[in-house]
Write a structure and sequence with these properties.
Elements (H helix, E strand, L loop, with lengths): L4 E2 L10 E7 L7 E2 L3 E8 L2 E5 L2 E5 L4 E4 L5 E5 L12 E8 L15 H10 L3 E3 L1 H16 L4 H16 L3 E3 L16 H12 L6 H7 L4 H12 L3 H19 L4 H7 L5 H12 L3 H10 L1
Parallel strand pairs: 1-3
Antiparallel strand pairs: 2-9, 4-7, 4-9, 5-6, 5-8, 7-10, 10-11
């Protein structure tokens, strides 16, 4: 995982930025920036990395991130193939905390928005009714011209989100961004290697050598940066891939276990339950009810 780079968004005259993204794949760089970010995936699949959270993403994925929270929507490998005709699409909104002035959020009426922004520092995702309603609002926002009406539309959307209850936190309560922009890119090398080889047996010695460190030093380094052990990281990547295969419904659980890098079905079932809180069959049932 490349050390998260501080991403400077281009200056604009408006109080916030709305973009419709249409690219062969989403930005593959692990990065962070001082803006709040509301992001909706319209088209594309892959794995979403936010802070210490690793989850699969698909169309309808909706998250709200606070400032300087490292993130990456890593499109599936098929999107990077030169002959691919696949496309990713999304709508993203960027704004600074003071996008309507230094004192705006300090007003009594803005208490719900202050709470929403504080929660966003851990990252938030919505499901169900709120996600569907927000998807419609974001699509409309992207079509509006910059002006007073668009500001009102954004505030209305944020107000709706501040009162919604069907949200989940993305990062763990103790997560903090310890990455410095001037650090080396060893984490990106590790990140890319794991994503390319997680179905195989991964050797700690090989990974540590790739990072230019001894195995014990690498384990300490990784735990500090990722807020989890390297083995936990690999397990979450594998289970995230298994979740996508389960949703696809083309393979049985034994095949999915092997395709995701697990050599025994019992170990797959145990780790799946530990990470998702559900059995594989229970996960599929829950997904189909959404």
């Amino acid at each position: 995982m490349k050390n998260a780079l501080r991403k400077d968004l281009e200056p604009v005259g408006s109080s916030f930025t709305v973009k419709e993204l249409v690219e062969p794949h989403f930005d593959p760089n692990w990065h962070f920036h001082p803006h709040y970010q509301l992001f909706l995936v319209k088209e594309g699949t892959g794995t979403r990395f936010i802070g210490d959270s690793i989850k699969p993403f698909a169309p309808g994925d909706l998250v709200f991130l606070g400032p300087n929270l490292p993130h990456l929507w890593r499109s599936d490998q098929a999107y990077f193939d030169k002959q691919s005709s696949l496309t990713t699409k999304g709508v993203v909104v960027y704004f600074a905390e003071d996008f309507l002035g230094n004192d705006f959020l300090g007003k009594q009426e803005m208490a719900p928005l202050r709470n929403l922004f504080n929660h966003a520092r851990q990252g938030l995702e919505w499901t169900g009714y709120t996600r569907n309603r927000t998807e419609t609002a974001l699509r409309n926002l992207a079509r509006q011209s910059a002006g007073f009406e668009r500001v009102i539309s954004l505030l209305t959307l944020l107000n709706d989100l501040s009162h919604a209850t069907d949200y989940r936190y993305l990062t763990s309560p103790g997560y903090t961004n310890t990455v410095k922009p001037n650090e080396t890119d060893r984490m990106q090398l590790v990140h890319d290697y794991v994503l390319g080889h997680f179905p195989d047996d991964l050797s700690l010695d090989t990974i540590a050598d790739l990072a230019g460190m001894t195995p014990p030093a690498f384990c300490r380094y990784f735990k500090t940066r990722a807020n989890k052990t390297f083995s936990e990281f690999v397990s979450e990547v594998r289970i995230g891939h298994a979740c996508k295969l389960l949703i696809g419904g083309k393979l049985n659980i034994t095949q999915i276990s092997f395709e995701s890098g697990f050599r025994t079905l019992s170990n797959f079932n145990r780790q799946f339950k530990e990470i998702t809180g559900q059995t594989p069959s229970g996960y599929v049932k829950t997904y189909r009810q959404l």
